[in-house]
């Protein structure tokens, strides 16, 4: 029995529920299995607008029939109305939710959502997530389900309940950003099993909705070819287009319509976490290259802020800490505002080596046929030093809707950094910001 937030003192209506004292109505509940349930019109009317309307429409009547609810479900709901105690299990609670929704009792639904969220398991989390996605009042349950799925992704996808889950729920799962998977092959194989199971049941499945959420471009070519060999769910035409986009930086073949263009996985290990595990003698095995996307939200407001600066999370290359920055600055020579992009090597007193790095900035557009704006350069970075470009694009051009740089108020800059093995400290090392005029 579940009692959300109630004290140890019995609810004032508890005695009325137990003794049926002063009850003034009798309700025959059920379809095939029927049962009489007694109650109090005033209490039931206050609990549900639907029951209130039923009593008002039949004033003077004391016997009623409700044939769209099974007796045990109605009794569970009735008990909560009187006592605030939810007498359910992990199966019946969903029926109580359905009845509470039909009879407009949001407080009962809220208690059910709390019970479901407190009793999540590998077997039922997708059913709970399906319920949460369908209700506007279940944000807490939705968050709990997503946290559970993110933590135990493999177990959830391998459970038999996954194959029986509605397509929209599978799409929602595949859309989550922090799934605990090694790479996108896990989702690819899961999609293949799901499509095969539904096909054998004679169901027509819009499998492309799932495939569009898989981040194929984050896979290595070797893993992508392995996925092609092991599965049948990805059509040949889409596979060819994806493979071309994986092998050509300036591909003239667009990604299949609606497919993800993300180049990072769901739960990527942060370069900083990898680097911290290495010693100074292990520089050769520390990551030397990274490609990621820096998204600047609310770009119109951002351009109006004085000295606006948007930084990426810190990452680690060659055992050195780095970050990327997007700024808005005015160039005095022409009095124009520009988007400025920099890569910054952070200060580290214990490691004063210099490092040669090749940097490429790509300001992405909304359509594949439009070339992104780009700037590429190579510089030697000392500690606490930034290199970049202070006239990447004029703010007026950036905000021009005809240039298609903005999506939902956000711009996306793809940053690709390749670093060489660190060099000995330079006698010229200082805090410098370099510009391209």
From TrEMBL:
Q: Which InterPro entries match?
A: BACK, BTB/POZ_dom, MATH/TRAF_dom, SKP1/BTB/POZ_sf, TRAF-like
Q: Which residues form the BTB domain?
A: 23-90
Domain MATH, by residue range, is 292-417
Query: Which Pfam families does the record associate with it?
Result: BACK, BTB, MATH_2
Q: What SUPFAM superfamilies does the entry give?
A: POZ domain, TRAF domain-like
Positions of transmembrane segments? none
What is the name attached to this protein's record? BTB domain-containing protein
Write down the species: Loxostege sticticalis
């Amino acid at each position: 029995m579940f009692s959300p937030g109630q004290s140890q003192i019995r609810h004032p209506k508890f005695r009325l529920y137990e003794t049926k004292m002063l009850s003034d109505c009798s309700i025959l509940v059920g379809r095939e299995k029927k049962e009489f349930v007694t109650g109090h019109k005033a209490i039931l009317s206050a609990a549900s607008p639907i029951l209130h309307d039923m009593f008002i429409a039949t004033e003077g009547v004391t016997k009623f029939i409700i044939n769209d609810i099974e007796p045990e479900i109605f009794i569970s709901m009735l008990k909560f109305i009187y006592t605030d105690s939810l007498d359910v299990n992990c199966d019946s609670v969903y029926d109580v939710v359905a009845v509470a929704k039909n009879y407009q009792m949001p407080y009962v639904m809220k208690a059910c959502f709390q019970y479901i969220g407190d009793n999540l398991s590998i077997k039922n989390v997708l059913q709970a997530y399906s319920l949460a996605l369908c209700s506007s009042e279940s944000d807490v349950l939705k968050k709990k389900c997503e946290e559970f799925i993110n933590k135990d992704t493999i177990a959830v996808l391998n459970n038999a309940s996954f194959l029986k889950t509605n397509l929209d729920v599978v799409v929602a799962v595949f859309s989550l950003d922090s799934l605990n998977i090694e790479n996108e092959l896990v989702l690819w194989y899961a999609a293949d099993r799901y499509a095969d199971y539904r096909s054998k049941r004679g169901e027509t499945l819009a499998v492309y909705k799932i495939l569009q959420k898989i981040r194929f471009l984050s896979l290595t070519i070797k893993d992508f070819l392995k996925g092609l060999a092991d599965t049948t769910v990805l059509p040949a035409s889409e596979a060819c287009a994806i493979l071309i986009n994986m092998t050509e930086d300036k591909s003239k073949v667009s990604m299949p319509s609606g497919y993800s263009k993300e180049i990072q996985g769901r739960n990527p290990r942060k370069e900083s976490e990898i680097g911290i595990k290495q010693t100074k003698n292990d520089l050769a095995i520390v990551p030397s290259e990274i490609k990621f996307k820096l998204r600047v939200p609310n770009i119109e407001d951002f351009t109006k802020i004085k000295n606006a600066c948007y930084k990426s999370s810190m990452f680690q290359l060659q055992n050195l800490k780095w970050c990327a920055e997007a700024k808005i600055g005015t160039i005095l020579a022409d009095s124009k505002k520009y988007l400025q992009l920099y890569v910054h090597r952070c200060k580290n007193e214990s490691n004063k080596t210099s490092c040669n790095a090749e940097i490429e900035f790509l300001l992405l557009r909304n359509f594949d046929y439009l070339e992104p704006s780009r700037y590429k350069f190579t510089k030697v970075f000392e500690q606490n030093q930034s290199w970049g470009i202070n006239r990447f694009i004029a703010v007026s051009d950036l905000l021009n809707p005809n240039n298609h740089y903005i999506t939902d108020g956000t711009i996306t800059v793809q940053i690709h950094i390749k670093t060489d093995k660190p060099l000995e400290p330079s006698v010229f090392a200082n805090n410098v910001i370099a510009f391209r005029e």
